[in-house]
């Protein structure tokens, strides 16, 4: 998401795949000054990659970490822009229920729903 809550890159994964598996690919796509993500992206490799690119990692540490890493709690509040965007996209039943049988058709409708949300 951009700073305005607009999608920059959309990637589809299998339902059982962890979000963090796509972090490297998403970080390569767009340059950023700040990367805000949820606890699902909290790994040393992801944080190191973000900081190596010169960006700030705003990712809260998981509660089971032995050494808790500090993060900017005020800046993390901006993550709700992404959550609100997905809430609006999921108002389209085909996105929320994933009725399409193929990934291609599902992603096509996700793009269409995203465009509809952005035009509102």
Describe it for me?
The protein has helices at 23-29, 44-52, 73-76, 80-89, 93-97, 103-119; strands spanning 34-36, 56-58. It has a two-stranded parallel ribbon with strand order 1-2. It has two domains: 1-77, no CATH class; 90-120. The radius of gyration is 15 Å and the shape is globular. Helices cover 43% and strands 5% of the residues. By secondary structure, it is mainly α.
List the helices and strands and how they pair.
Blueprint: H1 23-29, E1 34-36, H2 44-52, E2 56-58, H3 73-76, H4 80-89, H5 93-97, H6 103-119
Parallel strand pairs: 1-2
Report a brief summary of the structure.
This protein has helices at 23-29, 44-52, 73-76, 80-89, 93-97, 103-119; strands at 34-36, 56-58. The chain has 120 residues and is mainly alpha-helical. It has a two-stranded parallel sheet with strand order 1-2.
Topology order in helix (H) and strand (E) letters:
HEHEHHHH
Question: Nearest-angstrom radius of gyration?
Answer: 15 Å
Overall spatial form = globular
Biggest β-sheet, characterized? 2 strands, parallel
Helix content: 40-55%
Q: How many helix segments?
A: 6
Strand order of the largest sheet: 1-2
| Spatial separation of the terminal alpha carbons | 17 Å
